[in-house]
Amino acid sequence: MRKYSIMMLVILFCVLLVTPVMASDNAAPQEILPVNKIEKGMTGIGKTVISGTEVEEFKAKVLGVLKKQGVNRDLILIKVSGDLIEKTGGIAAGMSGSPIYINGKLIGAIGYGWQLTEHKIGMVTPIKDMMNIWQLDEIKEGTTAQLPEPVKINGKSVKKVCFSADKFSSNQSNSLTAYPVKTPLLVSGLDKPALDYLSKELSDYDLKPVQGTTSAKISNKENDKLVPGSAIAVQLVRGDIDISAIGTLTYREGNKILGFGHRFMGLGDSNYFLSSAYIHHMIKSMKMPFKLGSPSNLKGIISQDRSAGVGGTIGKSPKIVPLEVTVKDKDLNREQKINAQIIRNEELLQSLTGSVIYQAINSTIDRRGGGTAEVEMEIMANNLEENVIKRQNIFYSRRDVGAVALRDFSQALRLLTQNPFQKINLIDVKLNVDIKERPQVALIREVNVLTDKLRPGKEVKLEVTFQPYRKETIVKNYTFTLPKDIESGVAHMELVGGLEANFTAEQQQVRSEEKEYGYGKNETFKNLEEVITAFKEQKINSDLVVRVFPSYNSPEAVPVNKDSTEKKTEDTKDESTPKAQARGVDSEATGTLTEETFKTDYILEGRVNTEIDIKPKVKEKKKEKTEE
């Protein structure tokens, strides 16, 4: 028994040695200097990284304290100096979160600076407010705070500070507009088209993606420790493609950390990657200098994103959605696979995954322009009834095949993440995309009904002519069976492609049944299963859809059956009737009698309309004669 216990201890020790864990060096609490003890003229130091991972110091001097006037907290006005500041050109984007100390006591983190002016003046978010990050409200755009006494900046006497995220600017002669010392959203692995796509998608969050550098691996554990002043990366995407913002760690107590000194995206409860970061270079700019850096090793999770900063935990993993995209260029016979881990966030998932897929397509085909894309997708979730949503489709675009290939996938994600019934836990997403430049498109040119006499419950044989893009016409035969209960008489038949069929289906409203007076009912989806079923049952763009409706005597309809020339009733001849005025199909008004779908090799365009004459059942006629 004793030997068994010793053996188990040895095994446990070995497991702990080989099991990969995120670093979690504990840190003792830091002594704090509250705002009410801070006075003008006090001097201290700040800490940040401007090259590699080494934390360096700069000088800081207190110019005053902005008391709560229009904002929800005090802010400390400081001036920075020293050799480090000369190298950076002043307070730079990426320095947000840099801790400021007076007499060895932490007062807070750099959070705000000025654009297009002297970059040596900034404002510090008090550390107490950052520690209370979960209870903080947002700073309101356009609000102002009064300085206790005027401060000279660039020869200008400043009495007021106005706050803005980006566009708001004060035009008062005695005030300046303060901006969060934001870092650009650094992106590696995306070319310009994909970067533009991401920029458009994230425009509501006041983020401007810029081209960054690839992730840097820090092998030396000492250099990779997260301490106050360390560069940190808040990541949205990791892997072959990286999307992240670089800032500075302000405060650490045990495995809990605070940083940035202002909001990142302002999402409140959040779920970002927390990683160490490597600073490659400082970029000087009149507007706002910034650090050019890249994320390194995964350290934990950023779980709070508030106006006073971001907060998280080292050693704890965020919830992610693995994405695998495989793209094959059939013309070049080239294949590329991209893997990425994306934060599980319902508001951002569609934008982030879309940019990764768009990049995967563009980098594989290595060109801009049109083409045909065959897309196969698989979305897995652990709380769906079937766990997996699968769909295949084919798309064509003259201008941007990568963008059009995203349509079904974007729609599926939108349905899942924005559904009103339940939260979906996505666990895996896979896409296979085959691209070729040749348009695989055909026009539905004409139809000929080969069956002489059409009767309920009997087969209908069609001959359909297609016009492929810049090729000879082709003729295909199709057969379907009319419903046994379909009414006899003249009916309208249309042939459309799957894309057009889906579009008209979306336009049609659910037919209202007769209700008692004072009774109403919402006829939309009742649960998530119905939403997913409706998505799966959508037509494929290469489907040929044949629909039969009651006739409305459309002048566009061409009789192709010799028995379909019987005299119409007066109301169908009258062009003022709703049926006669209709163009296209309105199943709400007329009701679909039957619909059949056939697979083809082409993305189908166009619409063909005709009229058919359905004869009464033979058995019904015999029965009537017997009764007579």
Short description:
With 628 residues, the chain is an alpha+beta fold.
How would you describe this protein?
The protein is α+β, with helices and mostly antiparallel strands. 18% of the residues lie in helices and 40% in strands. It has 13 helices and 31 strands. The strands form 4 sheets. It has a 6-stranded antiparallel barrel. Strand 7 (144-153) and strand 8 form a beta hairpin. The protein starts with a helix and ends with a helix. The model is unreliable at 1-21, 136-142, 166-170, 509-514 and 554-590 (pLDDT under 50).
State the major sheet. Answer: 6 strands, antiparallel, barrel
Radius of gyration computed on alpha carbons: 33 Å
Count of DSSP H/I helices: 13
Number of strands: 31
Helix content: 10-25%
Please give the order of strands in the largest beta sheet: 1-2-3-6-5-4
State the low-pLDDT regions, or none.
Answer: 1-21, 136-142, 166-170, 509-514, 554-590
Tell me the β content: 35-45%
Structural class: alpha+beta
Terminal CA distance reads 100 Å
Give the overall form.
elongated
Q: What average pLDDT do the residues reach?
A: 81
